[in-house]
Amino acid sequence: MNVNETRKRTNVCSLSGFRISGLFAIINQVLFNRNKMSDLYDVIVIGSGPAGHTAAIYASRADLKVLVLEGWQPGGQLTTTTEVENFPGFKDGIMGPQLMAEMKAQAERFGSEYITKDVTKVDFSGSPKKVYAGEDEYQGKTVIIATGAKPRRLGLESEDRLWAKGVSACATCDGFFFRDKTVAVIGGGDSAMEEANFLTKFASKVYLIHRREDFRASEIMIDRVEANEKIEILLNKAPIEVLGENNVTGLKLKDTKTEEESEIAVDGMFLAIGHVPVTDIFKDQIELDGHGFAVPKEHTMTSKEGVFVAGDVADSRYRQGITAAGMGCMAGIDAIRWLDDQVV
Ligand SMILES: Cc1cc2nc3c(=O)[nH]c(=O)nc-3n(C[C@H](O)[C@H](O)[C@H](O)COP(=O)(O)OP(=O)(O)OC[C@H]3O[C@@H](n4cnc5c(N)ncnc54)[C@H](O)[C@@H]3O)c2cc1C
Fold first, then answer.
1. Per-residue confidence (pLDDT) for residue 82, from 0 to 100
2. Structure confidence at residue 23 (pLDDT)
3. Are 128 and 40 in contact (CB under 8 A)?
4. What pLDDT sits at residue 17?
5. Is the CB of 317 under 6 A from ligand 1?
6. Rounded mean pLDDT of the chain?
7. Which of 64, 123, 271, 313 can pair with 42 through a Cys bridge, CB separation 3.0 to 4.6 Å?
């Protein structure tokens, strides 16, 4: 073996040595990264109503690593109702909790992970985005906010007890069940006027009950209500008890001026005193409107890059299962495309 040959062999050895150690380094790096990345999700969905589940279905079906933090009400508002008759695909209707269980199972089928925890804090300032549930921290390349909105309630024990048993906050959802019945709508704004008018399509009589002397609603809406023969307006009255054992049978009212109490017989009570979007924890992170609803800026993306929004939390108008699911689909697709665009 001549000198040149020895040199060549040594070079090959040191080269393969370098290759081997380089390979170890790469393997190490991959393993290390994999460990480090094990809590890094492509998409973190906050909320598990129709919007959250649908976003999770779309994102996980696109092979993304998806975590859904379900929150205090797994399945969302529809788990508080019985029959859902207007969600397409179920011609005989479907029970709210069952519909939501099906949606969750569909998202899990494609690999979405679910954790039943409330998000207590978020930090969208950097990348990845950080989402906290108490002490636990989760990291996401993107976040989809689907925390819904809560109907404002009167705060009566009887109202809670008879919720979905004649007490409702959605005429579009439940008006149909009150054909030829008597119902009361509580509120004095545009939505109260709209709900009262809508309910006259089904109910034989609608009381519109407002605690003040004057309505906050627009003139045109008030005119429509006043012109509707099926509507009786009761001003300066506030419900103090919903009557009935298993179903609503009436309301106990208090006159807000004289404090005099009275009762009326009704089969249902519809609250139209507003909805509160669940956005407290996002206040300093994304743009909200004057009522606290999240504001989508570009399609479903909020004022923060990579943070999307879907469902009632961003919708003060339609507030339906199908519209929330539709927006969840949009947010899922937007998150997929946004992630694709980040790859150079
Ligand atoms: C009694 C009732 C009957 C209804 N009936 C119908 C009907 O027949 N048809 C219809 O189409 N619509 C109906 N609706 C309206 C429908 O339920 C809503 O429009 C729909 O559920 C909105 O979906 P969402 O996903 O935006 O939010 P929601 O369903 O409100 O879900 C919000 C989710 O966010 C989670 N969340 C909140 N805060 C946090 C947090 N900090 N961390 C983690 N998670 C959090 C909650 O746990 C929940 O899972 C009804 C509503 C009610 C109240």
1. 83
2. 52
3. yes
4. 46
5. no
6. 90
7. 64
Task: Determine whether the shortest distance from the Cβ of 312 to ligand 1 is under 6 A.
Answer: yes
**Which range has the worst mean pLDDT, 19-23, 74-78, 252-256?**
19-23
pLDDT at 39: 77
Q: Check pocket membership of 305 for ligand 1, CB cut-off 6 A.
A: no
Instruction: Say which residues have a Cβ less than 8 Å from residue 311's Cβ, sequence separation at least 6.
Output: 47, 49, 50, 51, 52, 146, 148, 323, 324, 327, 328
pLDDT of residue 81: 83
Catalytic one of 118, 123, 170, 190: 170
What does the block give as tokens for 238? 């506030």
- 40-150+275-342 CATH fold: FAD/NAD(P)-binding domain (3.50.50)
pLDDT-derived band of residue 184, with 50, 70 and 90 as boundaries? very high
Please give the CATH superfamily to which domain 153-271 belongs.
FAD/NAD(P)-binding domain (3.50.50.60)
* Closest CA relative to residue 326, chosen from 305, 312, 341: 312
Q: What is d(CA 112, CA 46) in angstroms, rounded to the nearest whole number?
A: 13
- The ranges assigned to domains in the chain are 40-150+275-342, 153-271
**40-150+275-342 and 153-271, same CATH topology:** yes
Task: Provide mean pLDDT across the span 16-39.
Answer: 47
Interhelix angle 96-109/50-61, rounded to 10 degrees, is 20
pLDDT score of 344: 62
Distance (Å) from CA 101 to ligand 1 centroid: 13
Q: What is the pLDDT of residue 198?
A: 95
Which is the catalytic residue, given 174, 267, 312, 315?
174
